[in-house]
Design a protein that fits this description.
heterodimer, A: alpha/beta, Mannitol-specific EII, Chain A, 5-stranded mixed β-sheet, 6 helices, 5 strands, about 40% helix, about 25% strand, B: alpha/beta, Rossmann fold, globular, PTS_EIIB_2/3 (chain B), transferase (chain B), protein-N(PI)-phosphohistidine-sugar phosphotransferase activity (chain B)
């Protein structure tokens, strides 16, 4: 069973968002996780603050992705939230001093334990290295499709 | 034995992926090393006994130790070059 699929819920998947800004996007997604009792109210500010110091934008061969997350103390239970953006937002690039990337796909992580989610993280990085599935994710128009694409991506890995 | 410090912002997410990749890389090349996974804030506390620091975040070079940024382990782009860099520093 895919760990990523287990941590992703139909209620944490959002399609074709048009956020005004990165802050707008992070606030919206954090609020959704908070409403579902997945994170503490402190998560939103913590994830925004952390993104400033340790940015999570990544440039893949297809599009920009970001994996915003923050310290485990703000998290009640482990989960992943996915969002596709019909209007990309600018993130700072991970590991770089001041480079930017236009991001179309977001995987927001609510994580509690070091090492606990290795499989999920490996699935995610596998997906980031899978141009066909990334392209499909940017075009998907239903939550079911998102789950299906992620399942297929894991099968690609196993081949 | 060499000591490698592997860090990311929270010490739970991207560094976990990097630790796993580095372990496999060491195994494939018959290198034994002690790996310490930590947050960026904790790098300073471990840097003294590190032979190599690997991060997914930008780290100011204040430690007089080799630093490798391993974003390629997340995106796959340039991964081989990063592996060669790591192996070079462990020789």
């Amino acid at each position: 069973m895919s760990q990523l699929i287990q941590l992703l819920r139909p209620t944490t998947v959002f399609l074709d968002l048009k956020p005004e800004s990165k802050i707008d996007l992070l606030t919206f997604l954090s609020g959704q996780l908070q409403n579902q009792d997945i994170v503490y109210p402190s998560y939103a500010n913590a994830v925004i603050a952390r993104e400033k110091i340790y940015p999570t934008g990544l440039q893949t061969s297809v599009c920009g992705v970001a994996i915003p997350h923050t310290d485990p103390e703000h998290v009640k239970m482990e989960a992943v939230s996915f969002a596709s953006l019909s209007k990309p937002v600018t993130f700072q690039m991970m590991g770089m001093n001041d480079q930017q990337v236009e991001v179309n796909l977001i995987f927001m992580l609510a994580m509690k334990e070091p090492h606990g989610q290795l499989e999920m993280l490996q699935e995610l990085t596998g997906l980031f290295q899978n141009p066909d599935r990334l392209m499909e994710l940017t075009r998907a128009s239903s939550v079911e499709q998102i789950f299906q694409i992620i399942k297929e991506s894991r099968k690609d890995e196993a081949l | 034995m060499k000591t490698i410090v592997i860090a990311c912002g929270t010490g739970v997410a991207t560094s976990t992926v990097v630790v796993e990749k580095v372990k496999n890389l060491l195994q494939d090349n018959g290198i034994e090393a002690n790996i310490i996974q930590c947050t960026m804030n904790d790098v300073a506390g471990h840097a003294d006994h590190a032979d190599l620091i690997i991060t997914t975040m930008h780290l100011e070079d204040n430690f007089s130790k080799p630093i490798v940024t391993a974003i390629s382990f997340l995106t796959g782009i340039g991964q081989e070059a990063t592996e060669q860099q790591i192996l070079h520093h462990l020789k």
